[in-house]
């Protein structure tokens, strides 16, 4: 067997395989997933699935019949142990699987709490990245208990929202000056913070944790100012690191992730990477985009380029987060903005400009603003801050 071999069982892997078949590729397509289940949606894990509002079968991206009908070999519970680049084969223990093109869609792993905090070996401390993580912590969400969330990104805030809805006391500790610092603007962070506080979540920013308390099982955390927060369990959401161990052992270039060129190719012309593990060339150095949208778009582009398209990847970042009854939708990246326009009609939306160009829209319960902003950004249409002011009918911008 040769053809296309995909290591990883997430959104990028599933999208790559589907695109290759849609383009008429007739060779073998094999997905090697380490988890014991077929590729599934990850965003609901910290939202609807954790709340019990989405069953497991609805998480799955494609049914078993799709893999059969499209001649995609799906091997779950399969750990790739090495890559023989000279022989163009992946190693699965003693087994060797040949490839013409190899795609690394290995994703990322959550960062644990620093060892010096004393958390190692304590029960009741969780990260949230895959189905097993969510299933492991689900029984902890019992009304009246105390949850401490460490980290003020999407995962931490979504876990705090679930806890509050379930009747727990939730406190979120963020070591940096504000929540969502890496992924959203100040205005958006302020709105999300106020929403959480209105639901009883206590958010503590710009303060560190000195140690985790407990014997055998976590009982609390001690903050840098000496305060003790009781904790029946802890959810850690302090970011992720790309899974590069397989690529590094194979001698591929690693730079902020698995280094790829504009087409998604690694330093080996027969090996590609897509999704959270891939580090793209950017204007200020290499960058990784951790989102479902990037996993889908990049996976599909890599499939095209494997078949000779030679297309340059142009990321069009978009993100979303469900918290309480609200939906935050983000198009673009607001990094480096020099002007913000706020709209409060039909929800709240924040329009970010740099040098007079629209670069991002953060929309909170404002789906129309999100869709119009996304189309403007992706279409490269020039609009001014005055054109998106509060009194403007946004539909006129699409004329």
UniProtKB/TrEMBL annotation:
The keyword Aminoacyl-tRNA synthetase does not apply. GO terms for cellular component: cytoplasm. InterPro entries: FAD-oxidoreductase/Apoptosis, FAD/NAD-bd_sf, FAD/NAD-binding_dom, FAD/NAD-linked_Rdtase_dimer_sf, Reductase_C. Its cofactor is FAD. The keyword Transferase does not apply. Keywords: Dioxygenase, FAD, Flavoprotein, Oxidoreductase. GO terms for molecular function: dioxygenase activity; oxidoreductase activity, acting on NAD(P)H. Residues 4-299 form the FAD/NAD(P)-binding domain. Residues 318-398 form the Reductase C-terminal domain. It holds the Pfam family Reductase_C. This is 3-phenylpropionate/trans-cinnamate dioxygenase ferredoxin reductase subunit.
């Amino acid at each position: 067997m040769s053809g296309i071999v995909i290591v990883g069982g997430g959104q990028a892997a599933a999208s790559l395989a589907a695109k290759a078949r849609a383009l008429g590729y007739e060779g073998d397509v094999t997905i090697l997933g380490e988890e014991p289940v077929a590729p599934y949606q990850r965003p609901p894990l910290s939202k609807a699935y954790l709340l019990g509002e989405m069953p497991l079968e609805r998480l799955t991206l494609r049914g078993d019949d799709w893999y059969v009908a499209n001649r995609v070999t799906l091997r779950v519970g399969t750990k790739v142990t090495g890559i023989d680049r000279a022989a163009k084969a992946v190693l699965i223990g003693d087994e060797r699987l040949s490839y013409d093109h190899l795609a690394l869609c290995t994703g990322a792993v959550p960062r644990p709490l620093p060892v010096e905090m004393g958390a190692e070996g304590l029960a009741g401390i969780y990260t949230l990245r895959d189905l097993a993580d969510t299933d492991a912590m689900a029984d902890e969400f019992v009304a009246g208990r105390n949850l401490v969330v460490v980290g003020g990104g999407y995962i931490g805030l979504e876990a705090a929202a679930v806890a509050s809805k379930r009747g727990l006391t939730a406190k979120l500790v963020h070591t940096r000056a504000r929540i969502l610092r890496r992924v959203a603007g100040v205005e958006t962070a302020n709105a999300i913070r106020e929403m959480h506080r209105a639901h009883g979540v206590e958010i503590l920013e710009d303060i560190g944790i000195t140690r985790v308390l407990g014997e055998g099982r976590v009982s609390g955390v001690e903050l840098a100012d000496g305060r003790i927060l009781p904790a029946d369990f802890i959810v850690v959401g302090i970011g992720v690191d790309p899974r590069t161990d397989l690529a590094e052992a194979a001698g591929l270039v690693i730079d902020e992730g698995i280094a790829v060129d504009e087409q998604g190719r690694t330093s080996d012309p027969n090996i590609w990477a897509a999704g959270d593990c891939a580090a793209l060339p950017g204007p200020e150095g290499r960058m990784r985009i951790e989102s479902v949208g990037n996993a889908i778009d990049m996976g599909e582009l890599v499939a095209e380029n494997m078949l000779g398209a030679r297309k340059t990847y142009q990321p069009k970042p978009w993100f979303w987060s469900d918290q309480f009854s609200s939906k935050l939708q983000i198009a673009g990246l607001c990094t480096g903005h020099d002007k913000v326009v706020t709209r409060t009609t039909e929800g709240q939306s924040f329009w970010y400009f740099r040098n007079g160009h629209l670069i991002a829209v953060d929309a909170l319960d404002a789906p129309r603003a999100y869709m119009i902003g996304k189309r403007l950004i992706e279409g490269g249409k020039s609009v001014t801050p005055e054109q998106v002011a509060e009194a403007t009918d946004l539909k006129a911008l699409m004329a």
